[in-house]
Write a structure and sequence with these properties.
Layout lengths: L13 E10 L2 E10 L6 E3 L1 H16 L2
Antiparallel strand pairs: 1-2, 2-3
């Protein structure tokens, strides 16, 4: 994975697998992403969103 840096803190973001995500009022399993060790800003990884969340969203919406 390419190195990502926080725009606010200018420090290297850490890869994590415990990002809490919700869809409406539904708690989804923890997600993979990156987090700033300074300010705790979190982002989901593109691969996770494309491969996991899109399918889950379609299932939840009944499409």
């Amino acid at each position: 994975m390419a190195a990502w840096f926080c725009g606010r803190c200018k420090v290297k973001m850490e890869e994590v697998d415990d990002i809490q995500i919700f869809y409406g009022e539904v708690d989804l399993p923890e997600a993979m992403g990156i987090r700033c060790p300074g300010c705790s800003q979190e982002y989901l990884l593109e691969e996770y969103v494309i491969n996991e969340l899109v399918a889950a969203e379609e299932m939840l919406e009944g499409k």
